[in-house]
């Protein structure tokens, strides 16, 4: 590559997030747990919960970490943050019953993932046509400090990859 190649080469910028950042998992309307129809998520029985009413079907890792669990059905995955916090992303309500129909996994269990990296592609229309909701939950299953709550930004429209914690 010559000097002119460097000058005229189209450069793309790659966003790099810190290990403490938590991102919106999709282009969506972010909603509180109280706005989720399923009681397990609404009552935060698995941990602090927020929801994302999906606008499209690309679901990304909310954080840098290890993809500890990726269900074969593609409906859910868990990421362990560098500080030890465990997060679960659950796509839809009762979508496990679809046995993977409408879901395509884009990563592998056990791999290290970056915040904003696509993990699952979901066909929202197929899921809804099958009679299931596509609201996607982000659950803090294992906070570093027992009982600690993450300060999320105000609910409303978010963009996939947007930082959603108050700093």
Automatic annotation (TrEMBL):
Gene3D superfamilies reported in the protein's UniProt record: Glucose Permease (Domain IIA)
Superkingdom: Bacteria
One Pfam family recorded for the sequence: PTS_EIIA_1
Residues of the PTS EIIA type-1 domain: 38-142
Keywords on record: Kinase, Phosphotransferase system, Sugar transport, Transferase, Transport
The keyword Ion transport appears for this protein: no
GO molecular function: kinase activity
Subcellular location per the Swiss-Prot or TrEMBL entry: Cytoplasm
Record-annotated membrane-spanning stretches: none
NCBIfam families on file: PTBA (TIGR00830)
PANTHER family the record matches: PTS SYSTEM GLUCOSE-SPECIFIC EIIA COMPONENT
Protein's name in the database: PTS system, glucose subfamily, IIA component
Natural source organism: Anaerocolumna xylanovorans DSM 12503
